Write the structure tokens for this entry.
Amino acid sequence: MSSSETPDTPDFSTGIDSGRIPDNGIIAGRVGDDEAVLVRCGDSFHVVGAHCTHYGGPLAEGLVSGTALRCPWHHACFDLASGEALAAPALDPIPCWRVERVGSTLYARERLPAPRPRVIAGPALPPGVVVIVGGGAAGLAAADMLRREGYPGTITMLSADDSPPCDRPNLSKDFLAGNAPDDWIPLRPPEFYADRRIDLVLNARVAALDTKRKEAVLGDGRRYPYGALLVATGADPVHLDVPGAAAGQLMYLRSFSDSKAIIARAATAKHALVVGASFIGLEVAASLRARGIEVHVVGPEKVPLERVLGLDAGQFVRRLHESKGVTFHLGRTVGRLDGDTVTLDDGSTFAADLAVLGVGVRPSLALAEQAGLKLDRGIVVDRYLQTSAPDVFAAGDAVRWPDPHTGDNIRVEHWAVAERHGQIAARNILGQRVACDIVPFFWSQHYDVAINYVGHAERWDAIDVDGSLDARDCAIRYRRGGRTLAVATIGRDILSLREEVAMEQRAAGR
Ligand SMILES: Cc1cc2nc3c(=O)[nH]c(=O)nc-3n(C[C@H](O)[C@H](O)[C@H](O)COP(=O)(O)OP(=O)(O)OC[C@H]3O[C@@H](n4cnc5c(N)ncnc54)[C@H](O)[C@@H]3O)c2cc1C
Ligand code: FES
């Protein structure tokens, strides 16, 4: 970028009047050729990079809270003084520049060094070896945080996957639609594991945990002793028995390999059957439509996503997909498959040379069960994400934790929550006693419509829709007993962030 291309963008290195920026204000600009934002928190001013390190979200449209800046797209949070990514889904810091004040003029000076790993100063001695079972969102975020916190010992990550931790949300969206190359999908490049001394073992399914001898045992008998262990085994897609389906005809989507296999078959497919009208099924439908494939979505519910988002939003999502050419068969199930012919339970038929099932997931609990960990429709953990076994923590889709916002024990399947769990568990492994008080957050993408959801509402007695779904500008509040439990937004990212902060403050009694 040259200054002649951006005449109206202030260059913070040449000085800017501090009076131009209100408290908690953000001004978009640059430092030389680098896009940057200037942020004011009370009497302090910060110049940091303009783009979130997750998917490049515009931080100028974010929210300042305390001394942190939150990204409008998926609620990552960055420390303004150091640039550190305090909360996932971003894991990498944003750049920061030193700010000098001369009279009322602010100058961005040299770029500050990236945050360095902290020096361990916890009350407890770090365990000699941390074993992480699971190579997904929670596992990777935990390993990353252990090193950021200065943990010097051995980290071994045992993953049943055949590829390193990957950006799972992308597998049903841009990657499946053909808009993201393969190299966007790994969460980290291979050198990350070498540099951080993270021993990543793939195709390594842990068959047993011996919590007395403190060992994880693979199916082939290899044993991994641990000082502390994190169970981050995630969830597995629910499989359906469809009469007539040939071996391998029904495809599921959880891993990078699954997504690549669907893409390979989509290359020649003309008509797709998608079973399941929930988030993953509908995202798959959108991506296959982007490939020009005719898509039929079959689901037993009358309105897609009604159970999670309510009637109005569910009907909107249906209209949106129909406007893109998706055919719904709702209130229906698949009776049988005969080659390329799908027969529904009402006897109607259509052709499909690709069949993808997205009928939900189940927490992956076999290992926890074998180890005798306390279970309740998930691995039961306390507010520090500790399981019922000493030195065994758990994080991500597999856990049910005490949520201070609703007062319920909850289990969710959200990317950012799994990563934040991993980060919290890592710090607790190091003895920091960090309570898990995060506000749940997820997003879902349908064509050019992003739905953001903060909070958690399994049941509600009132829904308020503010704004217009069809105009893609609304907030939907889910209330119980007069209390807002969750808020879904379309086109109102800043409101979503404000609601998140308000929920955090309510839980903290502020
Ligand atoms: C296609 C798709 C799209 C999604 N889109 C979104 C989205 O848009 N927004 C959102 O918020 N969430 C989304 N999610 C959900 C999100 O990906 C999950 O919530 C998140 O991945 C959970 O992280 P996790 O670490 O708990 O589990 P995972 O990421 O599933 O990782 C679990 C890991 O454990 C391994 N494992 C399991 N058992 C064993 C064992 N016994 N031994 C060794 N390893 C084991 C698995 O191989 C895997 O590596 C999506 C999920 C999918 C599949
Ligand atoms: S782009 Fe910022 S959190 Fe995703």
About this structure: Residues 417 and 440 are 6 Å apart (CA to CA).
